[in-house]
Each structure stands twice: as C-alpha cells, then as structure tokens.
Design a protein that fits this description.
By secondary structure, the protein is α/β, with parallel strands linked by helices. 34% of the residues lie in helices and 14% in strands. Helix 2 packs across helix 3 (103-119).
C-alpha cells in the first residue's frame, strides 16, 4: 500500500496515511478513462442543432424552366441543395448524444485516474479543511502552503465556507466525494483531498 504525507492548512506535515491499493493502486486502464471522458462530454451536449432539408425549406414548388432547349442544366426545384436558399444535404437534426457505461467500467476509470495522481505525486491530503468565514485570500494561502496549482479540492462534507472561498480562484474547483468524476480530475493538475474524503472514497470503491 502507498503511503502519503498528511498536511495541515499551514502546509506542515502532521502525519502519514496508508492508501488502499484497491482504489489508489490499481492497473491504469486508459481506454476506460478515455471512454469516461467522452461519455461525460457527450452527455453534456444539448443536441439541439437543426438545419432544414430540401423538404422543409419554403418555395420551390414550380420547375424553374422547361426541361430542354434553354441551354441551362435541367432543374426541378429552386430549393435543391445546389441553389442559394436551398435545403442542406444531410442536415443536422436534434438528437441525444448521450450513452451509458457499465458501473464497473466507471469505477475502474475513476480508480485509474486516482492511481495516476498518486503515481505522479499530484495527490495532496489535508488532515482537515475548515474555515470560519468565507475568505478567498485564506483559501489561496492554504493552496499555496501545500503547493497546489490548478487544484480540484475534494470534500466529504458540503462546507459552504470552503466552497464559496474557492469559487473565485482561477483554475480551482471544489467537488464532493459523491460527485467526483474522471473528467474533473484530469482537468486539474493537483488533487487536494481531506483525510475524511479519502476514507469516504475508499469505503465506497474498495
């Protein structure tokens, strides 16, 4: 099992924590990580784009000129795709881009990215992260103390003081253990987790 240092909010090491290999020491499966990212981005798509086909644009009921004898190419409608104002060939229509992944595949993808953060030394564990008031400057100092840039802060409890303090810091996001996902982890350089958050994730996924 991997051991990581546990820091306090001042950036001082206050102990170590043993990580469960079933969550933070698995074989990294890149194809599942890729699939999880594609799925999340696809599920976010509205799928509302629309253009009209030649059957939907107005006009074009009359043949523009007779079939033969004009010197022009034959035409049947002024709303064919080659005409200005005509319909679009294979026009996009509203559709649902979302697709499903198996529960085990999702879990394997999440464990893979958590393992990669441990291997890259990009996982920072705090003994606790509590604030008495909403103060962005305090949150900036905490992240600077543990040398966390462009960080994803994972909390076990929805502490609004912490969430609101981190909201205005560029490149920093907060999430909860029950909403953590592959895309958000990959999008950030450093993963900052409280000790309680690590234990909660191990309890669910181990």
């Amino acid at each position: 099992m991997a051991n990581v240092s546990v820091y306090n909010m001042e950036g001082k090491e206050v102990g170590t924590m043993e990580l469960n290999d079933a969550v933070f020491g698995v074989e990294i499966k890149e194809h599942l990580v890729h699939m999880a990212v594609v799925q999340q981005l696809a599920n976010k798509r509205q799928g509302t784009q629309k253009a009209k086909t030649r059957s939907e644009v107005s006009g074009g009921g009359k043949k523009p000129w007779r079939q033969k004898g004009t010197g022009h190419a034959r035409q049947g409608s002024t709303r064919a795709p080659q005409w200005t104002g005509g319909g679009v060939v294979f026009a996009p229509v509203p559709r649902d881009y979302s697709f499903k992944m198996n529960k085990k595949e999702k879990q394997a993808a999440l464990k893979s990215v958590l393992t990669s953060k441990v291997q890259e030394n990009k996982l920072v564990v705090l003994d606790e992260l509590k604030m008495d008031e909403i103060k962005t400057k305090t949150m900036v100092n905490v992240l600077n103390n543990v040398k966390a840039e462009k960080a994803l802060v994972v909390l076990n409890d929805n502490d609004q003081n912490v969430v609101l303090s981190a909201r205005n810091i560029a490149g920093v996001e907060t999430t909860l253990t029950n909403t953590i996902n592959v895309y958000d982890i990959l999008k950030h350089n450093t993963l900052v987790m409280t000790k309680a958050a690590v234990e909660a994730i191990e309890e669910v996924y181990a």
